[in-house]
Amino acid sequence: MGYNIELADRVRERLLKEPDIEAEEKKMFSGLAFLVNGKMCINISHDLLMCRYNPELEEEVSEKTGFLPMIMKGKQLKAYCYVESIGFQKPEDFEYWIKICLDYNKIAKPSKKK
Q: How many CB atoms within 10 Å of residue 100?
């Protein structure tokens, strides 16, 4: 299990500033996931930020610095991506990624319970 502790702290501190959310941390996707109101929202995997966002933003998001498509079983997962550190070093860039994740979290469907 490897994830950047400083990045996890940065996400944690940012989520603490959000009113009316319940954030939970869970080890998953070979890293640390932040579930917001019971739904996977953001994940830290190694030095990458994994984001879940509104699929309507796919074109905009794919043009951002540091964007990497999320590939699972040979296919790109829409509405999920990885972001390399160059894409969230500046506070305004970090805020962009956190905001699109939190915005989508409000309307995202929770995963099905097993």
A: 18
Any domain includes 114: no
Give the DSSP letter of residue 87. Answer: G
Cα–Cα distance for residue pair 82/42, rounded to 1 Å:
10
Separation CA 1–CA 9 (nearest Å): 16
Model pLDDT for residues 5-16, shown as the tens digit of each residue = 999 999 999 999
φ/ψ (deg, to 5) at 48: -105, 145
| Residue 76 maps to a domain | yes
74-103 pLDDT per residue, tens: 999 999 999 999 999 999 999 999 999 999
DSSP helix, strand, coil percent of the chain (3-state; round to 5): 35, 35, 30
